[in-house]
Amino acid sequence: MRAGLGRPGARPARAAVSATPIGDAAWRARQRARRRREWLQQGTLALLLIALAIGFAHNVAANLAARQIKSGFGFLFDPAGFNIGELLFDYTSRDSYLRAFAVGMANTLRVAIAGVVFASVLGVTIGLMRLARHPLIRALGGAWVEVFRNVPLLIQLLTIYLLVTELLPDSSGAWTIAGAAILSKEGLQIAIPAAGAAALLIALGVAVVSGAAGWLAARRWLTVGAGLVGLVSGSVIAIIAWLATGAIGGWSQPERDGFLISGGASLTPEFLALWLGLSLFTSGSIAELVRAGALAVPVGQTHAALALGLTRGQAMGAVILPQALRLAIPPLASQYMALVKNSSLAVVIGYPDLVSIANTSINQNGQALEVILIIMAVYLTLNLVIALIMNTINARVTRAPR
Amino acid sequence: MPLHPMIPAALAAVVGFGLATSAHAGKTLDAIKSRGQVVCGVNTSAPGFSAADSQGKWTGLDVDFCRAVAAATLGDANKVKYAPLNSQQRFASLQAGEIDVLSRNSTWTLTRDASLGVVFAGINYYDGQGFMVPKKLKVDNVKKLNGATVCVQAGTTSEKNVADYYGANGLKYKPVVFDTAEAITSAFFAGRCQVYTTDMSDLAGARTKASAPDDFQILPQVISKEPLGPSVRRGDDEWFQIVRWTLFAMLEAEENGLTQANVDAQKSSSKDPSVQRFLGVSEDTGKLLGLDKEWAYRIVKQVGNYGESFERNLGPKTPLALPRGANNLWSKGGLMYAAPIR
Fold first, then answer.
1. pLDDT higher for A366 or B29?
2. Higher pLDDT pick, A6 / A290
3. Parallel, antiparallel, or unpaired for β A265-267 and B195-199?
4. How far is it, in rounded angstroms, from Cα B324 to Cα A318?
5. Which of B179, B185, B186, B234 to probe by mutation at the A interface, max A CB count within 10 Å?
6. Residue A5 has pLDDT above 70, yes or no
7. How confident is the model at residue B145 (pLDDT cuts 50, 70, 90)?
8. Residues A210-257: pLDDT tens digits?
């Protein structure tokens, strides 16, 4: 465009007034100057932010020292001094605060993963119910979503916990289910194979192998449905393998001796209430996401599928749902992250998750600031991991077809 | 180029904020006098110590102490604002300056005294940790509770003590930890846990709220020392002295036989030099504390002595009916001993 100035007589006045040199070298010089200016500005801003952060930290440290409140992360290696009611690995009151936090994080992960799985299953089911043709099924789905999405999670947790502790029988009059499980106010005690961890690993291995086999086999007929078939077949065969380990190696039954129950595994009412509460609450939102995704698929797709002679079920499974789930993945990531964050309400119903153990630690050693920083870091990491996984899935399903 | 008008305002705000934070410590009495109220941190609901009735009126041993502090500093025992705090907020509120004194049946321990930036001003109730079980379990000794589920409140000394006790005796237990006393009592009375452990006075108070109090028994074992007392922020020695000597004044009044009923008569007619000094007739002990000479007289007149406060809140006519026991005066076999006011 600058070439126009080279033509004789073309806007001579402008060429005379403007002092901007023309040509490639001049342009490169201008770019260099601009880049230098930008780096300087960004460098100054970065230094300012760092100075602000240092200023804040210094102010906090000075105030803590002035009030003679202990600070520092050394307390992590002191003995914790309190016991925890639900353990995935060994822990006694003489272990360090760091180990106590690890137990708390394991409990949080346990309820978060269980909650994510159950909420997704429920959510997809209810979402499909809301898209059904039968008005009763649609109404039931709608009622579920409205109830569980609109009542605050805290109230739902308290209600479920109250029901669980009031309605279940005392340990003296516990219900025995099929001779293998005992249900009482103390929770659900189930018999597990005596091999314990080995049985679990075998079952997981079998689940992965048979799930992959089922998926590959079903891929010939379905797309998204193939994944579901793989999941279902994997779970069923895993349960059979687990039961087989028990049948071969013997069962570890839960046995009472006074108050002590040894053997078997148990799910406490706190875990059950939290898991159920989180799953129901999040399933309402996930159902709406699935429905929104299905409705966002252009209606021409349904028409085309039906015109090609697919039944409604085939159209849903092979055409609509794959596209709907692709659309739903980013908001689904938010729902999973919300579930992880909501699990911090465990402290209200007595489930020893990370926040509950952190609360106890703050009261025992008084270092609220450090402990809260640790909790924030843990939740941030958890949510970033979820975001990473979901973004990878999203990138894979939205890549252009080859 | 003229400065943007917001810049001086922003600078003033930053400087003011900095000044405010640094000028905070050391001036509690001035702040109370200008506010006209003592802000007292109390329990959300601890019958006998600090609880609000259905009309919103606060009563209890700790509440009486707050009123005594207000009577001594501001002249009127009713000039108190009560801030109900749960076990996690209590010390943080005190550190942050939201309350002036924490009178919330809190145990005096080394960790709390040394690392939280607070200092305990005395002991107004000697207590110990105990266990409550339903009578139908037919258990008479804590050592028979191996493997039991124990309800305990998050962040209290009870959590640590029960871990120590069970560990020392080689017993196992499953703790269920809640953050509010209301959640624990509802879970315990519903039968979720077999044992509830906290201070004996707390157990007695919680039992009064059960629908069938006679179904529960408090086991006789006391597994720890729990000296409960008021605490204040570090760094303000003047305020610390006022709170400490208010407690001593209530005890000294009981030692000298001064009650709400007879204090006026004693003021005008007593010949006992220690009584005259106490009531400000012969000497002004108050000005050394930053108060006026009738500070101790007002405490007894408006709130009563320690024994009267105990009688009113925890005595035989109340649902709790706790014995004086260790909380009696030293001259009567208890542990309550006031430094002399002279």
1. B29
2. A290
3. unpaired
4. 79
5. B179
6. no
7. confident
8. 888 887 887 776 665 666 677 777 878 888 887 887 777 777 777 776
Could you tell me which residues come within 8 angstroms of residue A82 by beta carbon, excluding any fewer than 6 positions away?
A93, A100, A360, A364, B159, B160, B163, B175
Decide if B235 touches A, using CB distance below 8 A: yes
Q: What is the DSSP pairing of strand A181-184 with strand A187-190?
A: antiparallel
Q: What is the pLDDT of residue A2?
A: 53
Report pTM.
Answer: 0.78
Reported ipTM: the value is 0.74
Q: Which of residues 73-132 of B touch A (CB under 8 A)?
A: 87-88, 91-92, 95, 111-112, 114-117
Task: Give yes or no for a contact between B283 and B277, defined as CB atoms under 8 angstroms apart.
Answer: yes
Alpha-helix runs per DSSP H in A250-311? 269-296, 299-307
Q: Tell me the residues of chain A between 124 and 163 that have a Cβ less than 8 Å away from chain B.
A: 162
First-residue to last-residue Cα distance in chain A: 40
Of 3.30.70.100, 3.10.530.10, 3.40.50.150, 1.10.3720.10, the CATH number of A97-151+283-398 is: 1.10.3720.10
The CATH number given to whatever domain includes residue B172 is: 3.40.190.10
For residue B240, what are the β-bridge partners?
none
Q: Which two tokens stand for residue B40?
A: 């007292």
